[in-house]
Amino acid sequence: MKGSFVDLLRNLLVFIHLLGFASLFGGAFVQVRDDVKVVNAAMLYGALVQVLSGLLLVGVIEGQDAPVDNVKVAVKLAVALVIAVLCWVNRRKEGIPGGLFGAIWLLTTANVGVAVFW
Ligand code: HEM
């Protein structure tokens, strides 16, 4: 009984984690052809959701006594924190440089790569 509740919690967190990723990635993707790029709400909240849901996931998985790859998680956390800080400090800007926009997108994609291939 206890086990099934923790399983449900983990699935719920993965669900939220994937919606957060969709929001962050999608918020950037819709602007790819725009001349002026911004950190929109989808990107900002997506980035924050990724950090929070990722940390909670690690806690739940460790609570299940399942193995967590600490190096992989540390890399994901570091990358996600950089993305979140970049989104946070630029959230009110009316335009951000293309390089900064590209960096946010590249780091997001890199973290999916780490999640899937590591
Ligand atoms: C931009 C940031 C992030 C992106 C794009 C991202 C992406 C993903 C994706 C696509 C998955 C599902 C595939 C898989 O299970 O391997 C996943 C799972 C996971 N992520 Fe992230 N992630 C991010 C940030 C984080 C952070 C900051 C942490 C932890 C501090 C984290 C911890 C995890 C864990 C533990 C799983 C496995 C869930 C499970 O097996 O039940 N992620 N992530």
Describe this structure in words.
The chain is mostly helical. It has one domain. Helices cover 77% and strands 0% of the residues. The protein is built from four helices and no strands. The chain starts with a helix and ends with a helix. The site of protoporphyrin IX containing FE (HEM) has 22 residues, from α1, α2, α3 and α4.
The shape, in one word, is elongated
Chemical compounds bound to the protein: protoporphyrin IX containing FE
CA-to-CA gap between the ends? 32 Å
Which structural class do the helices and strands define?
mainly alpha
Average pLDDT, all residues: 96
As a whole number of angstroms, the C-alpha radius of gyration is: 15 Å
Total tally of structural domains:
1
Major β-sheet profile: none
Unreliable segments (pLDDT under 50, ≥5 consecutive)? none
Give me the count of strands. Answer: 0
Which percent range fits the helix content? over 70%
N-to-C SSE string, H for helix and E for strand = HHHH
Strand content: under 5%
State the helix count.
Answer: 4
Explain briefly what this protein structure is:
The protein has 118 residues and is mainly alpha-helical.
